[in-house]
Write a structure and sequence with these properties.
The complex is a heterodimer of chains A (425) and B (312). Chain A is mostly helical and 425 residues long. Chain A folds into two domains: 70 residues; 319 residues, ABC transporter involved in vitamin B12 uptake, BtuC (Orthogonal Bundle). In chain A, 69% of the residues lie in helices and 2% in strands. Chain A is built from 16 helices and two strands. The longest helix of chain A is centred in the N-terminal third of the chain and has 30 residues. Chain B is 72% helix and 5% strand. In chain B, the strands form two sheets. Chain B has a two-stranded antiparallel ribbon with strand order 1-4. In chain B, strand 2 and strand 3 form a beta hairpin. In chain B, helix 1 runs antiparallel to helix 8, helix 2 packs parallel to helix 4 and helix 9 packs parallel to helix 11. The mean pLDDT of chain B is 86. The chains are: A mainly alpha (425), B mainly alpha (312). At the A-B interface, helix 1, strand 1, helix 7, helix 14 and helix 16 of A face helix 2, helix 3, helix 4, strand 1 and helix 9 of B.
């Protein structure tokens, strides 16, 4: 077992700190300030730059130390197959625990309005992550414009519900159908492109949709967005103190009126929608089309030579992923009551993709973990709002460098012929 | 839009001049995308943010030296360009070292995600360090030639536009010579053709890749400086859209091809300018993206690219 050479590592970290200093002095140390009376001035803040550089050096040292220790430990660790089996049972219990926790959360004593709002938000991202997981994790298609389908869902719900006054339960499937339709239209021409190109084209589509929403004033309200979107009701019973046309929710059930009713209802609504996405994914993975997605992800040429039509297979993944994005968008619109193109920027796509990739592509429970970590985590650190996205970007890089396949990576095929290799030993 | 209908010829000429200027900026950035893609086969998603850092470095040099009362406008710009190139090259080097080198040879999507993370990181880093507000800069070089005059409408060719296009031509010529004639360029071309074989023959592949990132970053920094003095306004978010358009230019020209990147940049600049001149300004970004989609569908190898053969 090799000893860790602390002196050599410290030397390396010192060099890293020096390089860091060279990087931070111009950008952090010299701040351009345009608030003064006589044009632009420079605000010298060398201390910040030096502190940041020292931070880089210390961070470098710690990371190297941790890496060295981990390597020593890993030599004594269990073989990979045993670890994979272990991971699977852990994931199973984690999943069951999360499900129970999600179900009872509104009844817990600390579940006030804020907790429920954060829970709803996290679940929205879990649902989006699961939807995108079909495209990215199962079919292996990198989609950087997923937010476009989220936007299509939200706007279709808002437009249909405000113009025709149809109920949420009618509009929801319509929103999903519209999003899936867009998925097919956008997907058809571009799905024969390879990984990176596909990513950039989908990014382009996402931006096109946003620019159109922003500029088509008569239809979408442009940058002002759409407000007064109808709120959902409990199968015809509105959540209001009183209603001119019949009983309201609390009157029907004989409860005291409380504004929490709607919040808890929205929570369970997104919980059910997310669960629907999950169950759907778990089931479709066992069907021929789901297996074709996984096969296509691993080797497209082999698939083609075995008679799988890559375009149609990818298109179904794209459309189904888009449909769930549309459902989530409709939920978002009805929850917020107001939508504008601001909510559908590229950064949203990046967040959703990060949830899928950081969780481990193809892993359902990984998405939940990553969503709690990224969305819940940033909610908790709300006071540090300025540093939120900085830490977010850094986390993306760090997790990719540390675990390129994500936290809980799962590339095991869902269906297998014959016994597992090494299962007997 | 004034004059578009009454003096079509003059209006066209003015748009042409503006388009070539914009295209020069895109072309310089596109070179960075195309070189990195040529060597390691990945999209350097954070390249647009390196361009932004270059613009900020130039601004800092100009404001800093200006406050000390040093130098004339011309001298300031030259110093600022050199300063921006050095800072951006350092960032380019660090970017590759931190986010891409550990993932080289790993799973493709991992490198792209890491690049997106780096792009978000750099944007927010500059936002925190330099403030979120837009940074205005007084015009440094004013005036120009009046090429044509008809009624109220004049066709202007400003000194600034001459400087931008001239610098771009000079840099691109120099850069092409660098790739074609020097040993650095030779090792880059060798790595592009076969990285493993180049390593076996004793080439320092890591160093070559680092150098490629630094050169691309330095060119992007020049573009950033030009963007700064041409538009007179920058913020931490300029890298995203300009980066995507420059990437579109690299794809349009044929990714991996240097003359292709220049041609693509020029075309994207022209298309964008003419689109805003003759159709609608609001949808000019849609035009750039639509072209990207169309090119990838109908000619995935771009105008000057080599067809890629997929091997099993």
């Amino acid at each position: 077992m090799a000893e860790i050479d602390y002196i050599a590592q410290a030397k390396e970290s010192a060099i890293a700190a020096l390089v860091g200093l060279a990087l931070t002095v111009p950008i952090v140390g010299l701040r351009t300030d345009s608030s003064g009376p006589d044009g632009m001035t420079i605000d010298v803040r060398m201390l910040d730059a030096v502190l940041l550089a020292i931070g880089i050096g210390v961070g470098h040292f710690m990371v190297n130390l941790a890496r060295g220790l981990l390597q020593q430990r890993r030599r004594a660790a269990k073989p990979a197959i045993a670890r994979a089996a272990n991971l699977k049972s852990v994931a199973y219990f984690l999943g069951a625990g999360a499900l129970v926790f999600g179900l009872v959360l509104p009844g817990l004593p600390f579940a006030d309005r804020y907790v429920m709002d954060v829970g709803t938000l996290v679940l929205t991202y879990v649902m989006l992550g699961w939807g995108l997981n079909i495209v990215v994790g199962l079919a292996g298609l990198l989609d950087l414009g997923y937010v476009a389908f989220y936007a299509v869902g939200a706007y279709s719900y808002a437009l249909i519900a405000s113009h025709f006054g149809w109920s949420f339960w009618v509009c929801l499937p319509l929103a999903g159908a519209f999003a899936a339709f867009f998925g097919i239209i956008l997907g058809f021409p571009v799905l024969r492109l390879r990984g990176d190109y596909l990513a950039i084209v989908t990014l382009g589509f996402g931006e096109i949709i946003r620019v159109i929403l922003l500029n088509w004033y008569d239809f979408t309200g442009g940058p002002d967005g759409m407000s007064r979107i109808p709120r959902p009701d409990f199968f015809g019973l509105p959540f209001a103190r009183s209603s001119p046309d019949g009983a309201t929710f609390h009157e029907f059930f004989g409860l005291e009126f409380s504004s929490m009713h709607r919040i808890i209802f929205l929570y369970y609504l997104i919980f059910a929608l997310a669960l629907l996405t999950n169950v759907f994914t778990l089931r479709i993975r066992r069907l021929p089309v789901g297996r074709a997605w996984e096969a296509l992800r691993e080797d497209e040429i082999a698939c083609r030579s075995l008679g799988v039509n890559p375009t149609n297979t990818k298109l179904t993944a794209f459309a189904i992923g888009a449909m769930f994005g549309g459902f989530a968008g409709a939920f978002f619109a009805t929850r917020q009551g107001f939508i504008s193109p601001e909510s559908f920027t590229f950064i949203e796509s990046a967040v959703i993709l990060a949830i899928v990739v950081l969780g481990g592509m193809g892993s359902q429970i990984g998405v939940v973990l990553a969503a709690i970590l990224l969305i819940g985590g940033t909610e908790i650190f709300r006071d540090l709002a300025e540093y939120r996205m900085l830490a977010f970007g850094a986390a993306m890089v760090a997790i990719m460098v540390w675990k390129p396949r994500g936290l809980l990576s799962n590339r095991e095929p869902t269906v297998r012929l014959g016994p597992k290799p090494g299962a007997g030993s | 839009m004034g004059g578009g209908l009454t003096e079509p010829m003059e209006y066209f000429l003015q748009q042409l001049i503006n388009g070539v200027t914009l295209g020069s900026i895109y072309g310089l950035i596109a070179i960075g995308y195309t070189m990195v893609y040529g060597i390691i086969g990945m999209i350097n998603f954070a390249h647009g943010d390196i361009f932004m850092i270059g613009a900020f470095s130039g601004l800092i040099v100009i404001v800093g030296l200006g406050a000390l009362g040093l130098g004339s406008a011309g001298g300031l710009i030259v110093v600022a360009i050199i300063g921006a190139m050095i800072v951006a090259a350092a960032y380019g080097w660090a970017l590759e070292r931190i986010a891409y080198r550990p993932l080289r040879g790993s799973f493709r999507l991992a490198a792209l995600i890491s690049a997106i993370g780096m792009s978000i990181l750099l944007q927010n880093y500059v936002q925190l360090a330099q403030g979120a507000r837009v940074k205005p800069l007084q015009p440094m070089i004013e005036g120009g030639f009046v090429l044509m005059q008809k009624g109220d409408f004049t066709v202007n060719l400003s000194y600034l536009q001459i400087i931008i296009v001239g610098t771009t031509i000079a840099l691109m010529t120099g850069f092409s010579l660098l790739i074609a004639k020097t040993s650095i360029g030779r090792s880059q071309r060798a790595c592009e053709q076969d990285m493993k074989m180049a390593a076996l023959l004793g080439l320092d592949v890591n160093r070559t890749i680092s150098l490629t990132f630094m050169m691309g970053a330095a060119l992007a920094a020049v573009a950033g400086m030009m963007f700064l003095i041409y538009y007179g306004v920058i913020d931490f978010f300029i890298g995203f859209l300009v980066g995507i358009k420059a990437f579109t230019a690299a794809v349009l020209g044929g990714i991996g091809s240097l003359p292709g990147a220049m041609l693509g940049g020029l075309l994207i600049g022209l298309i964008e300018t003419f689109w805003s001149g003759y159709f609608t300004v609001e949808y000019k970004d849609v035009a750039a993206f639509a072209i990207l989609v169309l090119v990838l569908i109908f000619r995935p190898t771009g105008l000057l690219g080599r067809p890629e053969v997929e091997k099993v």
